[in-house]
Design goal:
alpha+beta, 6-stranded antiparallel β-sheet, two-stranded antiparallel sheet, 13% strand
Amino acid sequence: MSPVPTVRGQAVALAVLLVAVAALGAPWEAGAIAIGVGLAGMALRWKYRSDLRQAGGVLPSHRDRLDLIVSGDLRALSLVGLAVALTLILGGVERPDGVGTARSVALALLAMWSCIYVSSLVDWYVILPRVTGQLGARPCRSHLGQEPGVWPKTWCETTRWWYFHRLVAAVAFRFGLGYAVALLVSGFITFEVGPRLFAAGVLGLFAEYSPLRLAPVSREAMRPRLVVGRTIRRVRRGQHYRWQLGVGAVTLFGLRRKTPVRESVSDREYVYDVSVEGVRLVPAASREGTSGPDNFERDPPTIRLKDVDETVPGEPQFSGCEGGRCSGINWYCIENPRCFEKK
């Protein structure tokens, strides 16, 4: 995750949407969302600072500089949105005519984009401080029994919330965008709220982050098998089918599935990070017995969760970072001065 330009771009887009919604005749809504986003961001930043003091964590210059950018952008967009909204409310500006559809579309996009921006702040203030090792333990040394000392207290919890907040952002993006499109179409073809929601659902169903594709991620978020920092082996099971004639005493055609059999087991793999798209895994053996802080793992392949039937512990656990060494297996490690750059 890169605050510049990714999160900064999200903040600029959100500020533009706040101004547009207020100017189109919904200053109360724009002001409420500006306050909500600002308070959420302030709460997350306060928690991050509190956790850092409690854990006695480090704050290197490459993180400190970006912290100032993220917090500054948050304050700027909140103040801009609130100032424009208050100006229009106190000035008694009347709601313009003939822009009802544009106002509704902009408001839907504003609500959607607010969820995405807050999700990025959760990444920056909650997830990354733990994954980078700012708050003590690094995930590449989790097999030594070390866990983060502040909430989320374990790597399992960290993984679960990493999935969860990105799920919320994915759903908000796809269905919010679908609803905005349905509102835009309804400006030309009139239909009520129910059909609009149905149209948004249909658009979301066939989108990249449809419910069918999000189901494996939802199950994984509830009970993570692929926990950040764990060393695992992936198991694929074959599903064998056969046709049979007769079910009990009745002569019918039926489909019976044989007992699934284990078809393949992967080599030992280190769980690098997780996302809605899938989980990224690094071969463990290639990073053991080496010390390469200048050669951090940058972009391992993504494995879709639906392609993982089962996992088993990858014994022995990854040992490349024992004794304070750095194998470079974790790009997000705070010791990597490029860990927050855009990949």
